[in-house]
Amino acid sequence: MVRIEDIVAAAKRLDGIANRTPLLQNAALDAVVQGKVLIKPECLQVTGSFKIRGAYNRLSQLTPDEAENGVVAWSSGNHAQGVAAAGAMLNIHTRIVMPEDAPRAKLANTRRLGGEVITYDRYSGDREAIARALATKHSAALVPSYDHVDIIAGQGTVGLEIAEDAKRMQCIPDQVLIPCGGGGLSAGSTIALCAELPGVEIFAVEPANFDDTARSFAAGERVSVDAGARSICDALQTSTPGEQTFPILYRMAEGVLTVTDEEVREAMRFAFQYLKLVVEPGGAVALAALLAGKLPTSGKTTAIVLSGGNVDVEMFSEIQAELN
Prior knowledge:
Layout: H1 4-14, H2 27-33, E1 36-41, H3 51-59, H4 64-69, E2 71-74, H5 78-90, E3 94-99, H6 104-112, E4 116-120, H7 127-138, E5 141-143, H8 149-155, H9 157-169, E6 175-179, H10 184-196, E7 201-207, H11 212-219, H12 245-252, E8 255-259, H13 261-275, H14 285-291, E9 301-306, H15 313-321
Parallel strand pairs: 1-9, 2-3, 2-5, 3-4, 6-7, 6-9, 7-8
Helix pairs in contact: 1-3, 1-8, 3-5, 3-8, 5-6, 8-10, 9-10, 10-12, 13-14
């Protein structure tokens, strides 16, 4: 179990490494939801997503022998960039297993940051098996994308910052919406938020076609989505909640919201037009839930996390063109 003390310790390690992204407010968004919205733009984070937080927290705690042998990770793209960036900062060789159809920007940036990329077929390959085989071959340490205490604690610094800044602004949220794939960000942030803001309600948000966390909440145990599931939210295409992250969410979060791909597109258009932010599909799901009225917001203060902004220019341009 990750403790608030672990998250506070991670925040100290990340000081000067990760950006302390601000809590933003926007009059147009407040008017739409008829309440106050606090926006945590992790799309402005180092490497364009929150993932540097968990990656650096994990890599910075390796022993010298572990660091010398390098690390192996698996990722749809954002964790890959976070691991590669952390490895470059700490002079640790990084190998990352990534889908061959990952956004080109994510593949290119991972390589640019120094990561050695090994691609696989997202729908027929087993990325964890490939990564574990590589780790065995090179005697390397594994850096899971979400199911590890150091990763969860690092991602939890997002929630810690939301709580600290909301207190400073004297604008305490009634509810917080957090994107959810494997659950590292949502679980870690839930621990921090519940410790710092007693009574706050937390909702994980995921794509409707990858609603494994919502299904698991309903079943009371971890279940998976169909193998044929598809979504534009490449960062959130996790078929089963994490073994460590799900119990945290199930015990501490209020529930799970789901959004369609079209609702995500609308959120990306809104973010660009009104917030002046580039947000990738997976990073926009919390905003999508807000705009689609997935929960009551009138007269309430709601905090949302925009978890990433790494989207290919072609996809982003196509989605924005639909605004006209």
